[in-house]
Structure formats: structure tokens, C-alpha cells
Amino acid sequence: MFIAEDTVFGKMINHILEIVEKNKNEFPNDSGRYKLSFLPFTINILLGIIRGIGSISLLITEIGTSDDTESVKASKSMYSEAFVRYNPELFRFLFYQLLLCLDFMAIPDIRHLGQFMLVDGSLFPAVSSMHWASYKSTANAIKLNLSFNLNKMIPVEFLVKEGNFSEKKFLSRIIQEGITYICDRGYISFAIFEEICEKGAFFIIRGKKNICYSVEDTLKVTIPFRFNAFVSCAQDMIVRFGGDKSNKLYRIVSFTAMGEEYIIITNRSDLTTYEIIMLYAYRWQVELCFRFLKRTLNGIHLMTHDPKGIQIQFYLYMIAYLLLLTFRQECETENAGNETAQNGNGCKESCGRSRNDAGRPYVCGLVSLIGKDLKKFWKIGIHWLTALRNSLLKRFDREIAINLSQFT
What we know:
- The chain is of the alpha+beta class.
- It has helices at 8-22, 38-51, 56-64, 76-85, 88-101, 167-174, 190-198, 273-281, 284-296, 307-336, 338-343, 361-366, 372-377, 382-389, 398-404, and strands at residues 115-126, 134-136, 139-149, 154-162, 179-183, 202-206, 213-218, 232-241, 250-257, 260-266.
- Strands 1, 2, 3, 4, 5, 6, 7, 8, 9 and 10 form a ten-stranded mixed beta sheet that branches.
């Protein structure tokens, strides 16, 4: 498919074209061999993902009936063959090159606290013929294991496996020195705690209510007065866990929020009680990322059932996420000016209750960045995305950037 370079979509995919041009030897030059060659296949699927098209059949109709594109008249079988033909490593390379070359903005309020990765897994339903995607005796599924960079609000590493794949194995694979990993209860393991410590990394992981420990010391609870309405019964302790063969000392921050009890385990001794609670509250952002991929981008519908093709599809979903976020930030920076973007002067400590936060009401009160600039620079909202979709094949100019900035 030919897309004019001066269109909105043309501006977005220019990053892809530059990487392919710069690394010609890494990508197949197969336009003379296949009607649906590597670059048209990649661009067409990205267009479908960004538009929220849930099937190859609809994508073919969309491209074939558009007056604004010169399309490769590819059949459904050609797309199926392309998903099998290409090596997922091509798209992996493209994804990581984008991470290197795109200058994503960092959330200023947590920069001084370190680098944080939100780690979680989410299931995507698979058809019965996908025997490799084992999950239950009655259903197949694939699991997306994701590491989400909290500082920049972007996916940075992921693994797509069968539904019953161990989430702890994924965490063990990605541990890096100096990073703090924030996880839910499914990742609790004394072996994981010890491995993270040995590798010079850190963790903030929610514990189970029945976990046994002895209190070695109590710490001063430090929570700003204005947040007392959201948390109660807070305790901050140094503990040893029963059954932990390493006998290491860890820290527990426990509290009650909206009637629910939380036990947060960490090896970060430098953070305040409030910072531990706040950072765990941020874990909800990875859940919102899953929801965005599944519902907003229609990732719940698989375009292929082949294991290699599934890998390609998810790399393209992550690539689309990066392209959308960087385009949003480029437009907003142009409108708002670099000073606000770099300094985060507009990041207020007030927040409006968002529908996306309904699952964890206390999160809205604790996370001070759910304000104007978080929504403006780090959120790909459905209203903004709808406005973008309606402008994708229009000529990009400042008027479009201004129009998009009206939506969150």
C-alpha cells in the first residue's frame, strides 16, 4: 500500500521507513518475489491495528475501497502466508530499534526515585485448533507476559507463550541491575525475591494475606496528611519470612484502602511509606495497557493461528503502541511548548476520577499524576484515538495537531 508521506499516517510510519532504509541488510528485499512483500505487509497490518480493524478480511476491504491509498491487491491467503513466511526476529529488531531511536518523555515526578518496570501477564483466547496454546482442558489461550516501563509509560519487553506459561519464569528472564520491578501477588516467591536481590535489582510485590513473617523492627509511617482519606491502618516493618531458607530481611508496608487489605513486600529501604504505596498503585497502568491492546486496538481478535504469526502480530501491536504514543507527544509538545513537556510544570496533584480507574478507586487519590499532563502526554485515550483515526489519511499540518490536542 502506498501512503503519501505528508499524511498523518505517513508521518507516523516514517520512523519505520527510516529504520528499514538504515538497516537494509537486516530486512528482506523481496518486492520482486512476493506481491505482498515485507514492507507493504508490515504497513498494512499497522494501519489495521491503529484503525482498530479486527480481522484480515475487514482490512482487505478497508484498503481496497479507500480513495486515499494505492493498495496492493492482496488476498487473505497472502496475509496468512506472510505471517508464516517472515521471521518474528525481523519485527523484534524493528521494535527494539524504535525503542532506541524514539525520544519518549519521562514522567518527572518519579524520575528521582529510580527506574520502574510493571510486570504482569494477560490471557488472550485461542481457538481449539491452536493445540500449542495449552491452558485448560476446556479452553486454549495464549499469555502475553509484559514488562511496562513506568517512567516512560511504554512496553519494553514481552513474551507470548501458551496460557499456562509461568509468569515467574518471565520475570526471572528479564531481571536487570538497578531496576525496581512492581508486580501483583502472582509473582510472590522467596526464590524470586532472592534472585532479584542477588542481581542487584529491586522489587515491590503484593503479598498474600496468609504469608507468615516475624517483625524484626518497626519503621515510622510517613504518609502525607492529604492522602489519609484513601489509606488507613498503615504499618511499615522490617520482617523475616517463615519458610524462607535465605532468612533475609525484607520490608513490609501494609495498609487498608477502600475496605481492601494490602501487604506490599519490598527490598527498597530508601523509599518512604507513601512512595511504596504510590508506586504499587501505579501497577494499575499495566492493566490499562492490556485493556488498550485487547479492546481499543482489537487485539483480542487474532489475525493468525500460527505460533510464529502470533509473535509477529504482537510485535506489530507493540510497535503501533510506540508509534501512537510518540506521535501524541510530538503533537502535544508542538502545541504546549518544550518547557512544559520537559519540566512537567503542569503535573498537578489533583485528579479527576477516570472511568479507567474505576477498578481501583484509591489509585486516583494516591497517584498524583492522574492530571492534565499525564492524560495529555502519556495516555492514548479513546477520544484522541478516534480523532486520529478520522485524520489518518489526511495531510498533516498544525491544524490537525491542534485539533487532536483537544481530545484525551
